[in-house]
Fold this protein.
Amino acid sequence: MERRAHNSVIGSFWGLFRVQDNIRLKNIRLKRLKYMLIFPLAPVFANMQRALFPDAARLFGLDAMTVLGSAYCLGAGALFAFTSVKNMARVARFAAAFTAAAFLLWLALCPASLMAAAAFMLGLGGCAACASFAYAFALNNAERLLGAAAISLFFALNQLDFGLSFLSGAFDRFYLTALTLGACACLLFYRAEDFSAAQGGRRAKLNPALGLMLYFFVAHYFVEIFYTYLPGASAPEAILMNGLVGVLAVALAVAMQLAGKRSIWNMCNLFFLAEICTYVLHFTPEGSAFRNAARFLHGFEQLGYIAAYYLLGCVFKKHGDFRLFKLCLVTILPASMVSYVIPGLISAYAPARLPLAAALVSGFLFIVFVFLSPAYAKHLFYAPWSDDFYGADMAAHELPCARKRGKPGLSPRETEIVRLLLKGYSAKQIAAELKITVNTANFHIKNLYRKLGVTSRSELFARLNAQEFPAEE
């Protein structure tokens, strides 16, 4: 009955709310802080573009946001295309040096120059590409969560600064300089041995888990970026509201994971619902309570950032390798550029239709996400390996165990559960023994029943015996 429920859209959608993670602060390693703190610069600078460049600033007929966003994506793809696991640390140092030089040149020449800023964003994209790789393969689950939360927190705090008019005069240059040099310093300390999990072993292939993760990653980008182009989005009071709620959203996300042990699935849905409500409420008159509520709700965009980056790191650590990571990154970047270009063109030629386009695109992407619930349940949150979300880190992908002495081809986890079943353990006792959820234990049991061709525990005992599955092999 439970399995059939998970095969339906409604059953899967509601069932996924019960999935749990187990993030623990004790798993944080101070030596990995350089991989956790690199990301915040990119979104902070993106948010400051409206403060540094007037709306009239254009290059090649495109506004500043579109030009710099596209340069960022292009730089990430161009630099990362020439990297390997072995030279990653050297490439990171090159990206850091180029970015720092381009930034200082931009400040020296003219802070309002889009051409100079585009060169800086080109290098920054390369830095972010290196950082995203390290984020996926050099961190564990707790470090990934707090690293993603750091991105969002820096972003939200910067919004508060701008909304309260703290960024004025020379302070904006000082603030950007400190962030840029700090990010470059982190890159200079990258070590090739920290990426060993991304090389060797079996060659990874694109699978449903990776595809579903990538769908949400790209979808959240499309949903969020439309707001930047909406009228009034860059007003100080709007940015102040976004920043205030953004800080609260980051705190909520961390609390959901650390205290509530709630799955990242909940963050994904809260993000979609908040952004759709934001765009729908944008049809109300300017200055109304509903329009102000829309600006508050948009602060929940931080949940999307945290969920997207956390899933990116976890799923790639489990199922990916460097070659596949590079392939996916090169594929994602054109989509990211399109996410800037589409609203940029609508804003330029049909600004009155921008709220409608934002609401329709967000609603469509969320509907697709909901209808993919059975796939997310099967391939991610109820997959045989999903208890990795409950552990300290994601284990590298493995082939099922080969048949030995006539044994069925069970995975290591399924073999462990068979041993416990043959000892008379219940699903609840198995969950406690293996430190997984009862839902995950039941999923493993049903999966191995299917592989063994049995439908009950009595048939399992008749099919196997304890001698076939000793305590140690």
Summary: The radius of gyration is 24 Å. The longest strand covers residues 58-59. The first helix runs from residue 2 to 7.
